[in-house]
Every structure is written in structure tokens, then in C-alpha cells.
């Protein structure tokens, strides 16, 4: 095998979202004397054509062309160029979902490279090939191996001082770390890359880097930083006076701004939401105006019209629709143009903006183009959307035909992110068919089967949901969560048998995990399957399930799979949300009369507990299976309520049982707190500068609380006021085996991770930093924090999913249990509550949940000279996670 002088094709900066920004080909080397000029030039021309096809989204054509180039290089003995062509071939095949073929191309490339001596050009291709392999590993879900492979690629790029390759590898490493949930490490890399790119003199390289960083920051939910980076990128692009570059940055900036608007809406900050929405619309409009390529113009207009429709700006929509139609006809034949057509059709379907015949024509063109391009993933996307159109027009036969065809193709092309949608769609169609035929049992069974397939596909995807194909419109609330809820809806109709109850329970636990994954943007929770009876034979687990038209409740009583079920057809999701909102408002007001709270709490008790009241009571006669603990796996807005305050007409629930909450039994580690060796790290501040920054008042009784903890636990370490800093907390936990961490400071839980935090003396400690704060290094992996106490926090007002933030803190902290407050309580009573809790906790005969219960009962009966008996003071505190 001859070693020759080679013409190398370099890989540009890799994007975090689409993986390849472009394949740039530099000045080519001249032909060598050993081979005919025409042969080498034809191979070079094929590489050029392959690059062009790839950049235009013609992945099947790119694959074919690059394979031809590889064959010529094999024939002429140009091994290095052959290896390079195969690496590029693999990248194109990955886009087509041809993962096995992509693996074969990469393996062949690596084998060829082993035969070549170490030279700069060989090292460059080795790095390129490792980079392509890392993308393939990521696509297959082997994120840790992908991370290691990018590290090897970066090392090679450093050897040859390839700054583009170095930065591209670093950005991809950060992406992999985010997928693994290692945000601190990802942030460290990204911060370093940002600083390097800020100093970059080449404006083209600088703006490309900033665009990539802005996208990956958005994907990691760091929206404020994404906005900042993209604004800087826009300034650079404007100085370059290149319209297409400005358009790309503005499009990405608009995506970040609309994400900020949606977060603000969630937090009921309507003024901010409106401000960000208008900014997004302006960015999209500017992007469309500046775009030179028809594809970029259409994408900007599609994003713009989506926002306009959500905002009900009908007059602007009417102006934009004809422009999009005209632009679509000018699009070149590529995957991007197919996806643009399909996304436009989906918008028309969702908002009923056009006749069926017109939408059908749009989709048929998309299908034909996908077939002409041999792009099966794009074909599946278009076929499935056509099935969706027929679903909306109640043409069941055609809807099933096209959906089934789309599903077969998606499964054949390793596209689970598309396949689950068509499995879900088939489930819906068969369900409607069953209802149409008066609940045909066979159709109902098939519907459950397809829903179950969709559920299983989503479960297998888990963390990969955050790196789904960005060309496919995606929203957790619209296209993931309904799969779980609709499957449970089907399973619990009529009189579900034992198997269906077990499945429904498992689906709801999986939904809890999926919500946490979506909250963090990664598969942060590593589930460990456990059986409740192995944990606690005296616990009953209650699963309320909020559906649009009814409230379902499943309860697991002591005994193997001893399940009961009750469905309330007279309670809708809006009624539940309103009842929760009213009770929560009453609880947060110190002046609310106990009688009003009891009346409102009894309503929810009647929904959740009363149907099973008799069975729970009957266990008290059987000591071996007597129910002492009620564990709630809560759904929706119910998570923002303390279950201990539910009232049966005579007593609060906490007077009968110990009460706790968990995100799912799969997350529990069945280990009790060791009372004989309590060691507590105690931290807090009375009136920190960070409080003033956030507009929060002093917590005057923190000193009383911290001193009370110290008196009741022999081994304590105090971090008070100026010493209460994140770095000091980390240092202490790394140095000493604390099993309890007690933090008395302001904090907030929200459905937005960027708004979920606690305050140290100087600043926020965000939820994403909790793994670094408490979960720490490998030395602590066998001795995690047993109990994290956050005594002055609250869930965000008006955010129905704010308690997701509390669950997120519990997961990220790596603590087996978290005791926290759902609203800020008078700090004097909080100090007394915590002192009493430690007194109870020292008793090795009771669980953590029972210790909490004893304190709450004491507040009900032992503080007659105060108003501490009011639920405002004692109901706020809930135990999340391991209750024993």
C-alpha cells in the first residue's frame, strides 16, 4: 500500500445541535505523479460534490457521492483520503439513520488509519474520524463513550494545533456532559471556550463559535447566558455586514427569547413574558428580512407565525401566511425544505388555517421530494403528518394507513424520536375507532398496545429527548406528557384488572422521571427498581392521577401488588387546580381561620383518601400489615400542597398517619438514617447581601434555629452569616462525613430550573449546582447525605408545577431525603419547629416521617399560648424521598 501526498478535507467547528455546521474544503493539493490526473481530480470533484450535498441537506446523495470517492481512493491506493471519505460518509449515513452502515464506515476508516505512519495529515484524519465516531456513539445513546472519544479527538487536534478542531471537540464534550447531567463540568468547559472565542480576531470564526455556544447554552436551559452570547454574536455579525450570518444569529436569538417568554409565563410574570415575546417576534422578522437563502427565510417566518398564533395576533398571521406559501415554492430540494413544508402543514392543521386539500398538497409534495432524495426519515415525518391531517378530519382508514407507513419507515431508519409519535398516533386512532364501534374490545386492546409501544420508546430515549432532531417541532407538554396521561386514561377506563393497575402505576412513576428529565434537560435521575414491601410493610402508597375529565386514584396497600382504584368522574383537572389554589392561598395566610382550612382540606381529602378510608382503617387490626405511613406520589398541582393538612371531618391526616412525598419508588434507596452517629453541617444567614439583591427580608431567628440544632446534636459544624458561602459548604462536606445538611436561608422552588435556588451570603446557588454542592466526589458515593433540610424556602406563587423544583433539588443534592417548606413561615415558629424536629429525630425507634409527624402534632396541641396550632405554621414542612 503506497503512502502518498494527500488532499485533505477539513471539518469546521461542530455545532451542538445539528452536529455539523459545514464541511469546509480548503485549497486542494495538486495531483501526484503516480496516478493519472483525471482519476485524482474526479475523486476530488466527488468530495466537493459530497460536501455540497451534505451542506444542502441531501444526505442520501452525499452518501452515494462520498462512497464513490472512497472507492476511487481505494483503487488508487490513497489510503488517507479513503479513510477521510469514509468518515464523511459515516456522518451522512448518521443523518439518514443508517447507524449500522455508519459504524461499518467508521470501523473501516480506523482500520486503514492504523496502517499509516504518524504525520500531521494522518493525525488530522484520525481526529476527524474519532469525532465522527463520537457523534455515532451519541446517536446510539453511548454518551460516556462518546465523551471519551471526543477527549481523544481533542488530544489529537492539540498535537497539530488545529484550533477549530480543538474548540469543536470541547463544545461537543460539553454537550455530552450536559446529556449526562454533569452541568458543572460542562459549564467549566463552555466558560473556557467562551473566553477563547471572545478573544478570537477572525470575525467569521468568532460569530460561528458564539452561535454554537448560544445554542448549547439554550439547550442546557441557561437562557440568560444564551441570550447574552447571541447578542454579542449579533454585534459581531452586524460589523461583518453579512446578511446571512446576521439572519442565522437572529433566528437563534429569537428561539432563546421565546424560551425566556415561556418561562416568564409559567412564573406568571406576564410583563416580562410580553417583553420577551415581542423581542422574539422582532428577531424572527429581522432574520426573515436579512435571509438570503429561501430556507432560512421560511424557517424564520415559520417560527414567527407560531408565536403570532399563540399570541392570537390574527391580522399579522393573515399577512405572513401568503409569504410562507410563496417562499415554500422557492425552496431547493433538501431535507430542510421537506421539514419546512411539514412544519408549515402542522401549523395549518393545529390552528385549522386551511382546507384539507391544500394541506394534503403541501404534504404530498414533501413526500415526493423525500422519496426522490431517498431520505426515509423525512418521508416518515411527512407521511405521519399526513396521517395526523386525516385524524383531524375523522378519516380513520386513511389516517391509519399513512400513520402505519410512517411508523414502519421510522423504525427501519433508527428514528425513535419520530417513531414514538406515530406509535402514539396509532394508539389515538385505534382508541377513537374503538369508541366509534362502541368500545370494540379488539380495537381497545390494539390501542393500548400502540400506546405502550410509544411509552416504551420514550422510556428508552429518556435523556436523548433533550437532543432530539431540532428540525422536528418538539414540546414536552404537547408531544411527550400526553402519551403517558392518555395511556393511563385508557388503562383505567371501565373496571381495570390488576395488570392494568400495575401498568398505570408504573406509567405514572415514569412520568415523574420524564418531568424531572425535562426540568433539567437531561436524564438526571438514575432509577433503581424497588418493591414497596421490601422497604416498609407499614406503608400505603397513593397515586392521584389528574386527567382532563376526571380524577383517578390508585392506592398500594401492604401486600404484594395489593392495589385498589377509584375514579371520580365528577372532578375535572380545572376543578382540582382551583381547589388546590384556594387551599394553598388559605394556608399561606396566617390569619385564615382553621375552620375555613378544614372545609377546603376536606374537599381534597374526600377526593383522595375517603374512597379507601375503610380499608386503611381495617389494617389497624393486623399489626403485621398495619398502615402507619402514607406515601404520596403526587401529580400536577397537587404537588404544591402538603398532604398532612387534609381533613377527614374530625382529624387532620397527620393525626392519623405519618405523611411523606416521593417522586417515585424507583428513586428510593432503602436505607434508614443512622441515629447513633448524627453529624450535621448547619448553615444560614440572618440578613445577607444576597437577600437584599433578591428583595427579601431578614430571617431574624436564624441564630436561634442554628443554636437549637447545635444543642440537640453533639457533632455539628456551623457556617453562619459571612462564612455561609457555597465554597465553604463544599469544603466542609468534602472534609467530613456529614449525614445531615441543614440550611436556614431564603430559597425558591420553580418549574424553571433557572429560578430554583437557595441563597448563600453573597449569591444564588442554583439547583443545577446542587450536585456539585452536596453530591461531590467519589469518596462520598457510599456515604450520601441522608437528610437535607431547607427551612426557609418556598414554591413560586402561581406556578402549578413549582414543586418540580423541590423534587429537582432533592434529586440533584443526592440526598436520600429532603425536608423543606412549601411557603415561608414565621421564622420564630420555624426555629421552634426545627429544634423540636431534632429532638424527635434522635429517637432511633421512629422514622423520619414519624419524627416530622410528632412535631406537627405537637404544634397542634402543645403551644396553647401562641397561634402555632394553625396549619400556617406546621403544614408547610414536607418530607420528600426516603421516609424511614
Helix segment count? 36
Q: What share of the residues does DSSP label as strand, in percent?
A: 5-15%
Distance between the ends:
69 Å
Count of β-strands:
13
Low-confidence stretches: 1-35, 468-473
Task: Characterize the largest beta sheet: strand count, sense, and whether it forms a barrel.
Answer: 8 strands, mixed
Mean pLDDT, to the nearest integer, reads: 87
Helix/strand-derived category reads alpha/beta
Give the overall shape: globular
Radius of gyration: 30 Å
Instruction: Summarize the amount of helix as a percent range.
Output: 55-70%
Question: What are the main properties of this structure?
Answer:
884 residues, alpha/beta, 5-stranded mixed β-sheet, 36 helices, 13 strands, globular
Tell me what the structure shows.
It is globular, with a radius of gyration of 30 Å. It has 884 residues and is of the alpha/beta class. Residues 1-35 and 468-473 have low confidence and may be disordered. The chain is 59% helix and 9% strand. Strands 6, 7, 8, 9, 10, 11, 12 and 13 form an eight-stranded mixed beta sheet that branches. The protein has 36 helices and 13 strands. α33 links the parallel β11 and β12 (817-821).
Amino acid at each position: 500500500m503506497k503512502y502518498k501526498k494527500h488532499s485533505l478535507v477539513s471539518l469546521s467547528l461542530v455545532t451542538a445541535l445539528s452536529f455539523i455546521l459545514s464541511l469546509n474544503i480548503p485549497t486542494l493539493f495538486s495531483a501526484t505523479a503516480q496516478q493519472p490526473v483525471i482519476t485524482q481530480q474526479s475523486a476530488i470533484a466527488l468530495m466537493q460534490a459530497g460536501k455540497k450535498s451534505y451542506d444542502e441537506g441531501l444526505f442520501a446523495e452525499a452518501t452515494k457521492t462520498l462512497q464513490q470517492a472512497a472507492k476511487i481512493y481505494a483503487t488508487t491506493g490513497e489510503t488517507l483520503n479513503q479513510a477521510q471519505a469514509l468518515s464523511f460518509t459515516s456522518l451522512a449515513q448518521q443523518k439518514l439513520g443508517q447507524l449500522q452502515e455508519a459504524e461499518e464506515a467508521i470501523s473501516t476508516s480506523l482500520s486503514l488509519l492504523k496502517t499509516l505512519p504518524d504525520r500531521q495529515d494522518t493525525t488530522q484524519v484520525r481526529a476527524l474520524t474519532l469525532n465522527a465516531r463520537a457523534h455515532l456513539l451519541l446517536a446510539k445513546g453511548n454518551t460516556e463513550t462518546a465523551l471519551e472519544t471526543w477527549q481523544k479527538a481533542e488530544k489529537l487536534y492539540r498535537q497539530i494545533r488545529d484550533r477549530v478542531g480543538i474548540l469543536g471537540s470541547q463544545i461537543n464534550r460539553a454537550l455530552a456532559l450536559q446529556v449526562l447531567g454533569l452541568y458543572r463540568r460542562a459549564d467549566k468547559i463552555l466558560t473556557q471556550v467562551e473566553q477563547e472565542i471572545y478573544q478570537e480576531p477572525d470575525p467569521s470564526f468568532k460569530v460561528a463559535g458564539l452561535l454554537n455556544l448560544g445554542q448549547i447554552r439554550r439547550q442546557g436551559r441557561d437562557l440568560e447566558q444564551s441570550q447574552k452570547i447571541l447578542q454579542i454574536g449579533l454585534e459581531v455579525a452586524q460589523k461583518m455586514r453579512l446578511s446571512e450570518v446576521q439572519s442565522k444569529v437572529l433566528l437563534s436569538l429569537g428561539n432563546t427569547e421565546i424560551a425566556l417568554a415561556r418561562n416568564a409565563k409559567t412564573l406568571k410574570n406576564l410583563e416580562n413574558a410580553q417583553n420577551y415575546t415581542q423581542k422574539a417576534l422582532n428577531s424572527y422578522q429581522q432574520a426573515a428580512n436579512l435571509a438570503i437563502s429561501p430556507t432560512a427565510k421560511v424557517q424564520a417566518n415559520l417560527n414567527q407565525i407560531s408565536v403570532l398564533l399563540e399570541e392570537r395576533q390574527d391580522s399579522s398571521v393573515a399577512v405572513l401566511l401568503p409569504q410562507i406559501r410563496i417562499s415554500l415554492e422557492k425552496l431547493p430540494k433538501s431535507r430542510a425544505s421537506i421539514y419546512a413544508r411539514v412544519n408549515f402543514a402542522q401549523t395549518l392543521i393545529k390552528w385549522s388555517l386551511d382546507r384539507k386539500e391544500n394541506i394534503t398538497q403541501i404534504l404530498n409534495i414533501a413526500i415526493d421530494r423525500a422519496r426522490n432524495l431517498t431520505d426515509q426519515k423525512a418521508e416518515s415525518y411527512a407521511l405521519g403528518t399526513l396521517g395526523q391531517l386525516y385524524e383531524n378530519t375523522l378519516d380513520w382508514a386513511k389516517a391509519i394507513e399513512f400513520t402505519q407507513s410512517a411508523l414502519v419507515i421510522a423504525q427501519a431508519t433508527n428514528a425513535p424520536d419520530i417513531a414514538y409519535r406515530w406509535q402514539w398516533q396509532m394508539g389515538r386512532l385505534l382508541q377513537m375507532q374503538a369508541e366509534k364501534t362502541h368500545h370494540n374490545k379488539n380495537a381497545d386492546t390494539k390501542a393500548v398496545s400502540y400506546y405502550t409501544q410509544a411509552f416504551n420508546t420514550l422510556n428508552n430515549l429518556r435523556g436523548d429527548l433533550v437532543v432530539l432532531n431540532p428540525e422536528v417541532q418538539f414540546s414536552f407538554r404537547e408531544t411527550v406528557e400526553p402519551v403517558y396521561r392518555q395511556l393511563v386514561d385508557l388503562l383505567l377506563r371501565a373496571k381495570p384488572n390488576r395488570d392494568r393497575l400495575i401498568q398505570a402505576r408504573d406509567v405514572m412513576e415514569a412520568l415523574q422521571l420524564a418531568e424531572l428529565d425535562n426540568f433539567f434537560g437531561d436524564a438526571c435521575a438514575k432509577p433503581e427498581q424497588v418493591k414497596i414491601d421490601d422497604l416498609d410493610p407499614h406503608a400505603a402508597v397513593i397515586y392521584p392521577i389528574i386527567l382532563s375529565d376526571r380524577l383517578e386514584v390508585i392506592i398500594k396497600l401492604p401486600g404484594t401488588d395489593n392495589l385498589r382504584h377509584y375514579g371520580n368522574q365528577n372532578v375535572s383537572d380545572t376543578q382540582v387546580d382551583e381547589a388546590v389554589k384556594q387551599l394553598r392561598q388559605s394556608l399561606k395566610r396566617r390569619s385564615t381561620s382553621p375552620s375555613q382550612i378544614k372545609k377546603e382540606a376536606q374537599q381534597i381529602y374526600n377526593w383522595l383518601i375517603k374512597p379507601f378510608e375503610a380499608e386503611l382503617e381495617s389494617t389497624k387490626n393486623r399489626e403485621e400489615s398495619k398502615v402507619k405511613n402514607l406515601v404520596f406520589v403526587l401529580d400536577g398541582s397537587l404537588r404544591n400542597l402538603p398532604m398532612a393538612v387534609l381533613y377527614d371531618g374530625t382529624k387532620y391526616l397527620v393525626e392519623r398517619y405519618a405523611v411523606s412525598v416521593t417522586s417515585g419508588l424507583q428513586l428510593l434507596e432503602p436505607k434508614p438514617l443512622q441515629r447513633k452517629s448524627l453529624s450535621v453541617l448547619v448553615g444560614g444567614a440572618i440578613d445577607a447581601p444576597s437577600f437584599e439583591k433578591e428583595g427579601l427580608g431578614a430571617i431574624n431567628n436564624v441564630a436561634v434555629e442554628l443554636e437549637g440544632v447545635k444543642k440537640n446534636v453533639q457533632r455539628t459544624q456551623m457556617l453562619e452569616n459571612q462564612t455561609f458561602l457555597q465554597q465553604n459548604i463544599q469544603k466542609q462536606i468534602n472534609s467530613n462525613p456529614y449525614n445531615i445538611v441543614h440550611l436556614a436561608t431564603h430559597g425558591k422552588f420553580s418549574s424553571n430550573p433557572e429560578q430554583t435556588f437557595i441563597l448563600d451570603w453573597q449569591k444564588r446557588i442554583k439547583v443545577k449546582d446542587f450536585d456539585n454542592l452536596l453530591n461531590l466526589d467519589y469518596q462520598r458515593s457510599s456515604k450520601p447525605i441522608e437528610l437535607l433540610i431547607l427551612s426557609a424556602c418556598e414554591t413560586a406563587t402561581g406556578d402549578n408545577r413549582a414543586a418540580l423544583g423541590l423534587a429537582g433539588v432533592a434529586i440533584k443534592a443526592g440526598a436520600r431525603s429532603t425536608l423543606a417548606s412549601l411557603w415561608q413561615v414565621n421564622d420564630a415558629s420555624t426555629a421552634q419547629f426545627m429544634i423540636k424536629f431534632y429532638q424527635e429525630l434522635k429517637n432511633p425507634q421512629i422514622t423520619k416521617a414519624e419524627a416530622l409527624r410528632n412535631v406537627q402534632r405537637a404544634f397542634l396541641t402543645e403551644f396553647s399560648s401562641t397561634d402555632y396550632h394553625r396549619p400556617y405554621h406546621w403544614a408547610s414542612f414536607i418530607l420528600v424521598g426516603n421516609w424511614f
